[in-house]
Amino acid sequence: MKRKILAVILAIAMILTLTLTAFAEGGPGGTPPSGSPPGGAPGGSGSSSVTYSGATSISSSETQTNQTYSSSGADENALLIDTSDSVTITNPTVTKSGDSDGGDNCNFYGINSGITVKGGGTVTITGGTVEATATGANGVFSYGGNGGQNGADGDGTTVIIKDTVINTTGDNGGGIMTTGGGIMQAENLTVTTSGRSSAAIRTDRGGGTVTVTGGSYTTSGLGSPAIYSTADITVSDANLVSNLSEGVCIEGKNSVTINNSDLTANNTQMNGNATFLDSIMIYQSMSGDADSGTSSFTMNGGTLTSKSGHVFHVTNTNAIINLSGVTINNEDSSNVLLSVCDDGWSGSSNIATLNADGQILNGTILVGDNSTLTLNLTNSSAFTGTVSGEITNAKGTTVSTEVGTVSVTLDGTSKWSLTADTYITEFNGNAANVINNGYTLYVNGVALEGTSDSGEMPTQTENTAVTTTANTTDTADTLTTEESNNTVLFVIIGVAAIAIIATVSAVVIKKKNGSDAPDTEAKSENSKEE
Q1: Which of 116, 443, 499, 528 has the most C-beta neighbours closer than 10 Å?
Q2: 380-390 pLDDT tens trace
Q3: How far is it, in rounded angstroms, from Cα 328 to Cα 351?
């Protein structure tokens, strides 16, 4: 009998162990559905066998000045630099025509571009012009050689480009393009693009590191944001304009940091699977062009002008938005600051954290009934607005009718001025820092007591303490709501396992001794049985 009971104990322990392991690894997994990106990165699978050709090719250390590089052939680069050595190009004149149907070979590997750099070397380009009129012709391309493996290191390929004018007019023709773990360092460029899916600062599968200082970056094509990120991108002291698309689009586990720059977006036409208009789009398409994980958008100082749609939109990913001293001009009549909800993609959750540091926020925040928002206001930040779950997309379809999970935290220097009755899940801070204006803040359905009838709101001061270094905020230890729930579940299952084993063990001892025994004796008996 004792052996049977012990067998039951072992079976229960094994089942609980397997259950804990499955939850720790994120569940059974599976292949999520895919969806077309809204712009900048067309998605799809890459090719490991790519044949490069260049009208002019450089394969060793070289310095060239005042040279002309031209190509009119399909799938041919005007200038192909493939070397592990250092190359210097000064005042080039580059022209590229000749449409390509190479698809991903153009987007992932740099086929048909004006200038493509690969091979692990460092290429410095100063001055000159790059004109690309062909379909699939990016202006200047840095391919890091990792074969499009997201998260893998590149081979060190680095493009340093300064004071160059770049213009592309064909579809799938970004201004400066980085993939495969490549490195792009751009300074004082003038970049314009007019084709579809032609971001001025563009990245694709395999990612990389992009640092932009100064210059202007302007797009006018459908699905062509000023910045499309499947990489880590930092932009400082620049002027960014998107005339038809999002201003910035971040896909998956990637980041954009903008310091002391002016960003203007006039997104008036939806692209791909998108059902919302917005200026900063953070999402996961599940196309394979970006790993899933925490997306990050950080803006310090400067101005953000949103002419159409929601200022920020988060869907199908976990996003962290950090704002400090940014002047936000929301010119859309709906006055939506942020939406966190379902859109045209699936396979993940809609989770956002908005951290405001010395930041003025205005407008409505929309959180879908299956979505989660954490709002943190610190360092004399102020939010004038409400939180709602009543969401209709740009196509007129109802997305949500009730607000999801919302946690709001105010430090002692920050305030929230209500513009409507508002329902949230959690509130942390001094209720007196909530100015009700005759409205009520409900926390888990209960009216928050102690709010102020009126009060003076903090005013924003200019953020001047920003350097041009890349964002180093570590988000690895950030615990999402889903992870917190899983942690609690692990503890509950663990306690249950201990209780079950202890109870059955006690039964064994009772049957053997016919009386209750101290815990130490029971453990001793169990050890002997083992």
Answers
A1: 116
A2: 999 999 999 99
A3: 22
310-315 and 434-435: which strand pairing?
Answer: unpaired
CB neighbour burial string for 210-239, b if at least 16 within 10 angstroms, e if fewer: bbbbbbbbbbbbbbbbbbbbbbbbbbbbbb
Domain limits of the chain? 487-530
Q: How far apart are CA 290 and CA 86, in angstroms?
A: 30
Q: Distance between CA atoms of 459 and 24, rounded to whole angstroms?
A: 44
The upper half-sphere exposure of residue 13, i.e. CA atoms within 13 Å in the direction of its Cβ, equals 11
> Distance (Å, rounded) from C-alpha 409 to C-alpha 393?
28
Beta carbons within 8 Å of 439's beta carbon, 6+ residues apart: 386, 418, 419, 420, 421, 422
DSSP letter for each residue of 25-75: TTSS---PPP---SSS-------S-----EEEEE-S-EEEES-EEEE-STT
Whole-number Å distance between alpha carbons of 462 and 472: 21
Q: In what order do the strands lie in the sheet with 441-443?
A: 422-424, 441-443, 446-447
Q: What is the DSSP string of 464-510?
A: ----SSPP----TT---HHHHHHHHHHHHHHHHHHHHHHHHHHHHHH
pLDDT tens, residue by residue, 259-318: 999 999 999 999 999 999 999 999 998 888 888 899 999 999 999 999 999 999 999 999
User: Which amino acid is present at 49?
Assistant: S
Q: Give the span between the Cα atoms of 249 and 229, in whole angstroms.
A: 6
What is the distance between the alpha carbons of residues 323 and 358, in angstroms, rounded to a whole number? 8
Three-state SS annotation for 319-376? EEEEEECCEEEECCCCCEEEEECCCCCCCCCEEEEEEEECCEEEEEEEECCCCEEEEE
- Given a cut of 90, whether residue 323 has pLDDT beyond it is yes
Within 10 Å of residue 203's Cβ, how many Cβ atoms? Answer: 32
What phi, psi does 29 have (nearest 5°)?
75, -150
C-alpha distances in angstroms, 113 versus 15, 26, 151? 56, 41, 24
In this structure, what is the dihedral angle of CA atoms 390, 394, 398, 402, given to the nearest 10 degrees? -20
Query: Which residue(s) pair with 305 in the sheet?
Result: 264, 329
Instruction: Give the integer Cα–Cα distance in Å for 8 and 504.
Output: 9
The tokens for 101 are: 């149907």
Chain centroid to Cα 2, Å, comes to 56
| Range of lowest pLDDT (82-86, 286-290, 404-408, 492-496) | 492-496
| Alpha-carbon distance values, 86 to 125, 305, 392 (Å) | 11, 40, 54
The closest of 521, 19, 492 to 11, measured between CA atoms, is 19
* Tokens matching residue 99: 């449409």
